Amino acid sequence: MCGIVGYVGSEQAAPILVDGLRRLEYRGYDSAGVAVREPNGIQIVRAVGKLRNLEKALEDKHLDGSVGIGHTRWATHGRPSKVNAHPHVAGPIAVVHNGIIENHLELRAELEAEGVQITSDTDTEIVSHLIHREVTAGHDLVTAVRRALEHVDGAYAIAVLSETDQERIIVAKSSSPLVLGVSEGASYCASDIPALLPYTNEMVFLEDGEVAVLEAGGFSISTLAGDPIHREAQKISWSPVMAEKAGYKHFMLKEIFEQPRALEDTLRGRLDRENADVSSSEIGLTEDDAKSIRRVILLACGTSHHATIAGKYWLEELARMPAITELASEFRGRDAVVGEGDLVIAVSQSGETIDTLMAAKEAKERGAKVLAIANVNGSAIPRMADASFYTHAGPEIGVASTKCFMAQLANLLMFSIWLGRRRGALSEGEAGELVEGLARIPHLIDERLKSTHETVAELARHYSGARDVLFLGRGLSYPMALEGALKLKEISYVHAEGYAAGEMKHGPIALLDAEVPVLVLAPQDRHYERVCSNLQEARAREAKIIGITTAGDLRAQSLCDAFVEVSPTVEALSPFVTVVPLQLYAYCVADHKGTDVDQPRNLAKTVTVE
Ligand code: G6P
Question: 316 pLDDT exceeds 90?
Answer without folding.
Answer: yes
